[in-house]
Amino acid sequence: MAIEKKNIVFDLGGILLDIHPQRTFEAFATLGADRAILSEAYTLANSTMMGYEKGLISTEELYDFITNLLPQQVKDMPAEARQAHIRNAWCALIGELPHYKWQRINELRKQGHKTFLLSNTNALHWKQIALNIENIEGRKVDEYFDHIFLSYKMHRCKPDKEIFTQMLQEAEIDACDTIFFDDSAENCAAAGSVGIETVLIERNAQWGDFLTKD
Questions:
Q1: Where are the domains of the chain?
Q2: One CATH from 3.40.50.1000, 1.10.8.60, 3.40.50.360, 3.40.630.30 for 7-18+96-212
Q3: Is the pLDDT of residue 41 over 70?
Q4: For residue 177, what are the contacts with CB-CB under 8 A and spacing of at least 6?
Q5: For residues 179 and 96, what is the distance between their CA atoms, to the nearest angstrom?
Q6: Residue 115: in which H helix or E strand, if any?
Q7: What local confidence, expressed as pLDDT, does residue 128 receive?
Q8: Residue 211, Cα to own-chain centre: how many angstroms?
């Protein structure tokens, strides 16, 4: 099915990049963190972690917060080693980059579509993801998009409706000529509330005909 909309907005994790949050939780459990706080629900409800996702606290502050959740033997490590363990665990959720998805973005751009990225992400994750894309695909991530919108730079997170209105304003695009792909029904509902057409895709799923065929 051909995409009729001029502007195509992609979520990142679960859509263009496979993510596996359980890998991060397991990595922190290996470091000795209490399993009672190792869940996606805890992460999404935690003000410090969400503050980091919105760019409201620094990476150093995140390290300090997580350090306090870990046992004494980790706290006693030299700072550089301790932060490396935390960083590796934090980024363990970053998974595969299905090549055909990134190839499809190139094809859509050649067909005259404008492509955008709108992601809830943070500084540590984004740095690693951008490096992975360049190493695996051989191109910098910004070569795939007309504009990249990241929660930690916008100081907003989906499903806040304002993140979508800000994106439309800064990209200078019309909601009525825009389609958004995300793996969250709540995010899709927020985008729909400002007039953007949405497609809900299961996390880490292979794309259907709407993105693989014209």
A1: 7-18+96-212, 21-93
A2: 3.40.50.1000
A3: yes
A4: 5, 6, 7
A5: 24
A6: strand 114-119
A7: 98
A8: 19
Q: pTM of this prediction?
A: 0.94
Q: In angstroms, what CA-CA distances link 159 with 8, 141, 195?
A: 18, 24, 14
Q: In whole angstroms, give the CA distance from residue 117 to residue 139.
A: 16
Q: Contact 120/151 with Cβ under 8 angstroms? A: yes
Running DSSP on this structure, what letter comes out for residue 155? Answer: T
- Per-residue pLDDT tens over the stretch 11-40: 999 999 999 999 999 999 999 998 877 888
Q: Token pair 């910004």 is at which residue?
A: 142
For residues 27 and 182, give the distance between their C-alpha atoms in angstroms, rounded to a whole number: 26
Tell me how far apart the alpha carbons of residues 182 and 198 are, in angstroms, rounded to a whole number. 8
Closest CA to 121 of 7, 8, 15: 15
